[in-house]
Amino acid sequence: KEKYGLEIEDKAIAEQIVPCEECYFCRRGLYHMCDVHEVFGVSGPSSTTSPINSCPATMGA
């Protein structure tokens, strides 16, 4: 709550690109151009069909 002003069960949105944080672009802060990114919410346990989603803490940094 202190950093983002959110509390448990608040609704929020997040960037859907999950960068690798290691490629040329990520190392320069250009994560939206990441060569090997994943797209959050498309597949896996955090897909858009999941009632509850979570994301890496680094996505909000």
UniProtKB/TrEMBL annotation:
Matching InterPro entries: GroES-like_sf
Descriptive protein name: Uncharacterized protein
